[in-house]
Specification:
About 60% of the residues lie in helices and about 0% in strands. It has about 220 residues and is mainly α.
Length: about 220
């Protein structure tokens, strides 16, 4: 392994560690960092100095990667970006220059906003980026709370409720296993008291049997009241 490869290896490991630390930072301390940040004016000369040091070849091809539009998880985007750069052995100065190439919409507007600092190292990008989009991480946690609070309406067919509920499930990143999800779903049905002592092998089993009950098919012995 060459000296340059060793440097990159340590750089990527350092950045991964910074990201992990940022991920465990509480919302309160993150908010304080944002509030205490002073406004900085972009120094275009510094930007071009970094661009010059990046030393990208004229035939350089941008590695393929999904762009971050400001609505996703910033931690996930940073991890994918760093590992993509590591795969192509791209140096830190080039990473600073290339990072906005993988931003779009509100995220790109944030990066080039005149109140945002000119970044001189990638670690500062990591910290500011996570600070800016920290609430997206909180939204992942709120999705689970929303799921637990999504209940079937009195006049709502079970199949319609299930369709609405599973859309909420898709927003949960660290979702529980199927048995826990079934328990949450059953607790949110209007027929929960009828089926509290019943056993279901899967969601499809649960849905089909409850729909039969809902349609008045009480001949199913498993649904006897």
């Amino acid at each position: 392994m060459s000296g340059y490869q060793v440097y990159n290896y340590h750089l990527y490991n350092k950045l991964e560690a910074v990201i992990e630390k940022m991920q465990t930072t509480s919302l309160e301390s993150s908010t304080k960092r944002v509030e205490s940040s002073t406004k900085r004016v972009v120094d275009c000369r510094l930007h071009y100095q970094i661009l010059d040091r990046a030393n990208l070849p004229s035939d350089f091809k941008l590695p393929e990667m999904e762009k971050f539009d400001g609505s996703g998880n910033p931690i996930v985007h940073l991890k994918v970006f760093i590992r993509t750069m590591a795969l192509h052995q791209i140096r830190e100065e080039a990473m600073i220059v290339l990072f906005p190439k993988y931003l779009s919409k509100s995220a790109l507007n944030w990066f080039y906003h005149p109140d945002v600092e000119t970044f001189t190292d990638f670690e500062s990008i990591v910290k500011c980026f996570v600070d800016q989009f920290y609430f997206n991480i909180v939204a992942d946690k709120l999705s689970m709370c929303s799921l637990e609070c999504t209940k079937q309406n009195e006049d709502e067919k079970l199949i319609d409720f299930f369709d609405r509920w599973r859309k909420q499930v898709s927003l949960v990143v660290n979702r529980p296993d199927q048995s826990k999800l079934m328990k949450i779903f059953r607790g949110n049905m209007i027929y929960e008291w009828i089926f509290k002592d019943k056993t279901f092998s899967s969601f499809s089993d649960l849905i089909s049997r409850v729909i039969r009950f809902e349609n008045g098919c009480h001949s199913d012995n498993n649904l006897a009241l």
